[in-house]
């Protein structure tokens, strides 16, 4: 999925998530400060995240289940999206931000040989992160993000390459690879949204499987 890279010149992000005009655009030839504004795409992702998080937590709560997350490139944004929703404490156990590669092994149990061979930006790494945080936190569900938000490539992977994963009650993990465009902020925001979408999809699929199993036992 490709994110829209349009953003307003001279906008800055406030501490409450709002934007305000900071003055005229930087003239040609002048140095450009780090852009902290939110584009329309990032704002849309944030709104979508609120809806998804509420739906995920509602589904978990109705089933008496829990979730934890492991994050790399998103740096805590996935946990923040879930805990922004009212009633998160009923289902959300916690998160591990394993930004450094060695912490993915030390805290989450990702195989050191896998990290040495493929680097941190890999589907199997994401899967083991999701399984690891589920195990460490003692939850029914685990979700994970790893990838390259930019501005430079990492482990031979271009900017915008992201792997996300969800591990369910059975322990198996489902992964998805994203190829994203846009700013660092947009890539991270879209990664969070996509992970919540994957988690929601797996919750729905798991519920259908349980209904089918129960129906076959009648």
From TrEMBL:
<dbReference type="InterPro" id="IPR036653">
    <property type="entry name" value="CinA-like_C"/>
</dbReference>
<protein>
    <submittedName>
        <fullName>Nicotinamide-nucleotide amidase</fullName>
        <ecNumber>3.5.1.42</ecNumber>
    </submittedName>
</protein>
<feature type="region of interest" description="Disordered">
    <location>
        <begin position="1"/>
        <end position="36"/>
    </location>
</feature>
<feature type="domain" description="CinA C-terminal">
    <location>
        <begin position="51"/>
        <end position="202"/>
    </location>
</feature>
<keyword id="KW-0378">Hydrolase</keyword>
<dbReference type="GO" id="GO:0019159">
    <property type="term" value="F:nicotinamide-nucleotide amidase activity"/>
</dbReference>
<dbReference type="Pfam" id="PF02464">
    <property type="entry name" value="CinA"/>
</dbReference>
<dbReference type="InterPro" id="IPR008136">
    <property type="entry name" value="CinA_C"/>
</dbReference>
